[in-house]
Amino acid sequence: MNVRDVLLVRFGEVHLKGLNRPYFLRKLVENVKFAVKPLDGHVWLSDGRIYVSGTSDVEAAKEKVCRVFGVYSVSLAKELDKNLDEIARAAIEVATPLSGTFKVEARRSDKRFQPDSMGLGREIGGRILDANPNLKVDVHNPDHRISVEVRDMAYVYCGETIAVGGMPLGTGGRAALLLSGGIDSPVAGYQIMRRGVTIRAIHFYSFPYTSERAKQKVIDLAAILGAYGGGMPVDVVPFTKIQMEIHEKCPDEFGTLIMRRFMMKITEKLAKRRGCLALVTGEDLGQVASQTMEALAVTDCVVDMPVFRPLIGLDKLEITQMATRIGTYQTSILPYEDCCTVFTPRHPSTKPHLPDIEKAEALLDCDALIDEAVEGTEEIKYWEQP
């Protein structure tokens, strides 16, 4: 029996793309190839599925593919010739360690193969029962689902691992993420990446008020996010001088809002240099004083680019649960302060009026401060994104 292990990769939303589907599929295949390249995997698309074979570590390959945006689920399957007896033997082998109840789900894209799907399921199920007395059939709520797919080849597997889903990275344009060291912004980056958007991170660094460990924490967060799609470059912006100027010359209650407006202006300037089309933040409505509707309006009006806030309607518990799931939470809670905690006003304005903010900003040489920060930005690269 000529059998080999392959990963059977399913995709979700790409199916809905109509005439644009080939473009999205090509990008998805490219991203899967990129993910398994270190493991020498061979990747191909055939008959509505992506397949991966020949990897040096099939479980590691499965884990990597499950982190590719656009992939809905992955199954470790046995690939073999389209022969009923060989299919049955493979199914029996898959079922040997199982106990409890099971169901065989069979489907054929090759309609020339006989028996038909229902007949194939009955035949394979009967042979499994004969070979494994620890199993019983339950077609409604089985403990195990043994699947048989007859395509260019036959594939037998049990179960599937749900992947990250979304759209293939690189199909949704580029955006700049304001990445702090907190819980929220990494989750916002992940959420927008799921929509196919390639991200680069912008971090504001206030040395010596924030430490090298705080900077490294953000770099580590970018590396965690980058593992979902070929790396994430980080622009580290020197921000101490701007914060000192705001603290010394502007009304205390407006300090955080003016700081946020500077961040947005600087990020937009860097984003345009990097070919980004939008800004992304981790703000959610009402969580802190600078995230009221009035405050967000004052912040947004200083930039022309769209500002995406994927977390805008979530609460902190939901965001924390997502951070835990994607692997950023434990890094985010390391006790190293970021620039947003420096010179925090005791009584920040929650319902600011734009003329008051602009009057306060007029006390600063905004253009010179922004230019100096942009020119002093340090770019940290990892590896090329797909």
| Low confidence ranges | none
CATH architecture assignment of the largest domain: 3-Layer(aba) Sandwich
Overall structural class, as computed from helix and strand content, comes to alpha/beta
Please write the string of helix (H) and strand (E) elements.
EHEEHEHEHEEEEEHEHEHHEHEHHHHE
CATH superfamily of the largest domain: HUPs
Total beta-strand segments? 15
Task: Give the DSSP E fraction (strand runs of 2 or more residues).
Answer: 15-25%
Number of domains: 2
Total of DSSP H or I helical runs spanning 4+ residues: 13
Main pleated sheet: 9 strands, mixed
**Multimerization state:** single chain
At the fold tier of CATH, the topology name of the largest domain is Rossmann fold
Describe the fold and architecture:
The mean pLDDT is 92. Helix content is 38%, strand content 21%. It has two domains: 4-162, VC0802-like (2-Layer Sandwich), CATH 3.30.2130; 174-380, HUPs (Rossmann fold, 3-Layer(aba) Sandwich). By secondary structure, it is an alpha/beta fold. α8 packs across α13. It has helices at 21-36, 58-65, 84-95, 117-131, 184-193, 212-226, 240-249, 255-273, 293-300, 316-326, 329-332, 354-361, 366-375, and strands at residues 4-11, 42-46, 49-53, 71-80, 100-108, 135-137, 144-150, 154-158, 161-162, 174-178, 198-205, 234-238, 278-280, 307-308, 378-380. The strands form two sheets. Strands 1, 2, 3, 4, 5, 6, 7, 8 and 9 form a nine-stranded mixed sheet that branches. It has a six-stranded mixed sheet with strand order 14-13-10-11-12-15, with helices on both faces. The protein is built from 13 helices and 15 strands. It is elongated, with a radius of gyration of 26 Å.
